[in-house]
Amino acid sequence: EIIMSHLEVSNENGIATLTMNRPEARNALSMEMRKELTDVLHDVERDNSVRCVLLKGAGDHFMAGGDVKGMGDSIKKSPEEIKKEFMLRIHDLHPIMFAMRRMPKPIVASCRGAAAGAGVSIALACDLVIAAEDAFFTLAYCKIGTSPDGSSSFHLPRAVGIKKAMEIALLGDRFDAQAAKDMGMINFVVPDSELDEETNKLTTRLANGPTHVYGNTKALFYRSLESEFESQLQAEAEYFSDCASREDFKEGVTAFIEKRSPVFTGG
After folding, report:
1. What whole-number distance in Å separates Cα of residue 90 and Cα of residue 81?
2. What is the arithmetic mean of pLDDT over 106-113?
């Protein structure tokens, strides 16, 4: 287990758990946390012992957005200096989004308490989201006078449709986990007391799955958001034949014929 200044990392039973660790600031996304998240995601991507990634917040909240208190000094500068600083700040976020999109294994977000601003953006960038009933979500950027970042402008309209996305972004209202599930932002809502147990069940199930297949499936689905029909079908053929040449396919087919549950190794 590695403890960094703002991120705690452990790797157990094929599950890499990344805990955003600034509970005193509701895990607001500091510059250190951005750097640590980027580095760890790159490491996890290449670590074959990791078959599922779990992202969660320490304490009572997932993540309450960017470090708004830290922006107080920035706004005293000239408009040109501010523009330059925030251009760099936002670009600092992008390696996290690219790494999550590229990650060849499933990423699960487990949310309790607040997911606000960048917290919503990061949850949306995960492949699956499980939340406690008391979790609440708000895009909130408009409340501090800015437009969204962290890839939420890409993921939100695709998850909920353009009209609902406009409502969430332009009004900045809070909504609970069940509402988030009903509109397609998250996958599972569980009682608060069962969040850790249900999260572990989900990540364990994924960590015991055909990891390479999950990576190919992720890649197929995400490219489908922008690809044309013919190129998507070509990709299906390439990814399927790639999976078929590997051990987990042999095991899956053999298990089916032998009427037993497959035991996947992720290869």
Report:
1. 14
2. 98
Q: Which residue has the higher pLDDT, 71 or 116?
A: 116
DSSP 8-state assignment for residue 13: T
pLDDT surpasses 80 at 69:
no
In this prediction the pTM is 0.95
Amino acid at 54: L
Q: Is 114 helix (H, G, I), strand (E, B) or coil?
A: strand
> Which residues are paired to 109 by β-bridges?
55, 129
Buried b or exposed e, range 238-255, using 16+ CB within 10 angstroms? ebeeebeebebbebbeee
> Position of tokens 């390479």?
212
Cβ atoms of 180 and 186 closer than 8 Å: yes
Q: Please give the structure tokens belonging to residue 164.
A: 């609902």
Q: How many CB atoms lie within 10 A of CB 71?
A: 15
Decide: helix, strand or coil at residue 236.
helix
